[in-house]
Design a protein that fits this description.
By secondary structure, the protein is α/β, with parallel strands linked by helices. The chain has a domain of 211 residues: 3-Layer(aba) Sandwich (Rossmann fold), CATH 3.40.50. 40% of the residues lie in helices and 18% in strands. It contains 11 helices and 13 strands. The chain has a 7-stranded parallel beta sheet, sandwiched between helices. A two-stranded parallel ribbon has the order 7-10. It has a two-stranded parallel ribbon with strand order 8-13. Strand 1, helix 1 and strand 2 form a beta-alpha-beta unit. Helix 1 runs parallel beside helix 2 and helix 9 crosses helix 11. The longest helix is centred in the first third of the chain and has 21 residues. The chain is globular and about 55 Å long. The N and C termini lie far apart (43 Å). The structure holds nicotinamide-adenine-dinucleotide. The site of nicotinamide-adenine-dinucleotide (NAD) has 25 residues, from helix 1, helix 5 and strand 5.
Length: 340
């Protein structure tokens, strides 16, 4: 029997890597994507990596009819829901676009799942729910802070929608994975993160600067209360993150109760400063980076990294890739898309 898993946003950065891992673990991923932030060529690249043409639907998660059709055409065992808009800055300018896509989109997916009697849902959440944490490392019990963008708010609301739906007693088992900072790319260099204008994340900025697309990296502040004064993040290789999703599906499948919700941090458990990340890139690629120290950037959290005891125990999962591996793979991917 085919273990069909619907992957919304499966052509995107994280989704495409999860499709690979699902295939490797004997699942049959089915992709739903509107390609609003991904390229159709990803499907060919997935074929190159796996040797398999995955069934895919081009369409919008807000299209109830399409979701119903997907659930009736295929015996779906679970849904991994990635499809969402993710640009924090844009969400401040266009909040309704974010609430519609990320919140109404989640509602549409859950309603269709309930109608189609599909029980297992993995939801992409984010460590943004913790804001500036009071204690480090952050555990799943650490208090949530008011979101500092409509994007962040859609993740908090998303978790609440799932929690409330489960509390109402319907047959739904779900885990919200709170991602820390996903970086890197598939080691083959075939898939990775597509740049969206000027990157707001460090690693795409690093690789684009190394590729000559950007003149220099500005490090936003070196007067934070950290060993070298720059911000600390928990950078996780996208393949490790992908693996956590597969483990999550297995866990949901083994969960006896049909009515279950949990949240799990997905990070490495280790924080690295911005300067450490830059140095790790330089060391593994032998490419020197042009960077300067600038003023702090509004909205940046000083330091955050995950406590990963829960993911280790619950999902029987741990990370395999180092920061250097991530930088190497991010650079391979950048070289490929820049024809270097
Ligand atoms: P991405 O933009 O690369 O992938 C999202 C995919 O969803 C894209 O292929 C896009 O075309 C598709 N999509 C968007 N709206 C859609 C819609 N209405 N209908 C159908 N398809 C739609 O983003 P990503 O980095 O892979 O992120 C995946 C998920 O993880 C998102 O929910 C994001 O909020 C969450 N997340 C990402 C990060 C990160 O740093 N990348 C961190 C925390 C959480």
């Amino acid at each position: 029997m085919e273990h069909n898993i619907l992957v919304t946003g499966g052509a995107g950065y994280i989704g495409s890597h999860v499709v690979v891992r699902l295939h490797e673990e004997g699942f049959n991923p089915i992709i739903l994507d509107d390609f609003s932030n991904s390229e159709k060529s990803v499907l060919d690249r997935l074929h190159k990596i796996t040797g398999k043409h995955f069934k895919s639907y081009e369409g919008d998660i807000l299209d109830t009819g399409l979701l119903e059709q997907i659930f009736s055409d295929n015996q779906i065992e679970g849904v991994i829901h990635f499809a969402a808009k993710k640009a924090v800055g844009e969400s401040v300018e266009k909040p309704l676009k974010y609430y519609k896509n990320n919140v109404s989109g989640l509602l549409t997916v859950i309603e269709a799942m309930l109608a189609g009697k599909v029980k297992n849902l993995v939801f992409s959440s984010s460590c943004t729910v913790y804001g500036e944490p009071d204690e480090l490392p952050v555990t799943e019990a650490s208090p949530e802070k008011p979101a500092n963008s409509p994007y962040g708010n859609t993740k908090q609301i998303g978790e609440e929608i799932i929690q409330d739906t489960v509390t109402s007693g319907v047959a739904l088992k779900s885990i919200a994975l709170r991602y820390f900072n996903p970086i890197g790319a598939h080691p083959s260099g075939e898939i990775g993160e597509l740049p969206l204008g000027i990157p707001s994340n460090l690693v795409p900025f690093i690789t684009q600067t190394a590729a000559g697309i950007r003149e220099k990296i500005t490090v936003f502040g070196n007067d934070y209360d950290t060993p070298d004064g720059t911000c600390i993040r928990d950078y996780i290789h996208v393949m490790d993150l992908a693996d956590a999703h597969v483990q999550c599906l297995k866990h949901l499948d083994n969960t006896e109760s049909d009515n279950h919700f949990d949240v799990v941090n997905v990070g490495t458990g280790k924080g690295n400063t911005v300067l450490e990340a830059i140095k790790a890139f330089e060391a593994v690629t032998q490419v020197k980076l042009n960077y300067e120290i600038g003023p702090r950037r509004a909205g940046d959290v000083e330091k955050i990294y995950a406590q990963v005891d829960k993911s280790r125990k619950l999902l029987d999962w741990s990370t395999k890739y180092s920061l250097s591996d991530s930088m190497r793979d991010a650079w391979n991917w950048q070289k490929r898309i820049s024809d270097l």
